Amino acid sequence: MGERDDPQLVVWTAGSTLPGLRAAVTAAGLAGIDVRTNHGHLIEQACLEYRLDGDIVMLPDAMIDKLAAAGKIGAGRLPLGIVPIGAALRTGRTPPDVSTLDAMKAAIDKADRIALTLAPSGDHLMEVFQCLGVLPLVEAKLVRFDTSTMVNEHMAASDDDVLGFGPASEIIAWRNRGIVYAGPLHETIQMALPYSAAILGQARNKAAAVTLLKRLDTDEARASFKDSGVV
What we know:
Layout: E1 9-13, H1 18-27, E2 33-37, H2 40-48, E3 56-60, H3 61-69, E4 73-83, E5 85-90, H4 101-110, E6 113-117, H5 120-132, H6 135-141, E7 142-145, H7 148-157, E8 162-167, H8 168-172, E9 179-184, E10 193-200, H9 206-216, H10 219-228
Parallel strand pairs: 1-2, 1-3, 6-7, 6-8
Antiparallel strand pairs: 3-10, 4-10, 5-8, 5-9
């Protein structure tokens, strides 16, 4: 496919890098960027099956590596940072201490409900809870949702003490929308994923895609990602 005449870029991003991308685009005054989002694994699958209309993808490094091995990535890749798993409660509640394993166990015991995603971060935490010996307690309080946004919506709307877990950037995006961030989990139980932006081999506006990656590699843009929880 040839390059488009117009400057518009289509950027597909997983939810964890969506807030940082939007902030960076706004801060840089960039125009003509069509930002789209979906589950990372669905973006990856669409790329592999030639079903994705886009120029750039922002995904976990493992997914970018898989796409590169399949010949789907062109010349251009930019590391964005790492997104850790964090915990949250509804605004107005005292944020729990989750910085140590004992503190997190206490927070789980105190919570009325535990909210997780059905995504890999939620599956990882279910394994963590089993290793910590608190899985039966968690299961008695557990609610799970397809996305982190749905977890956040549930916490913000609930009158109960719902302790939610998800990617830090997706929690922080709700800091003025009814959610308070409790902080990242202890390093021994973390699943902190590195993310990158990459230009697709099928990109129709490759020159503009290269320019965007250069703009995202500025101090201003990286500050926007860091403020969003991509560290």
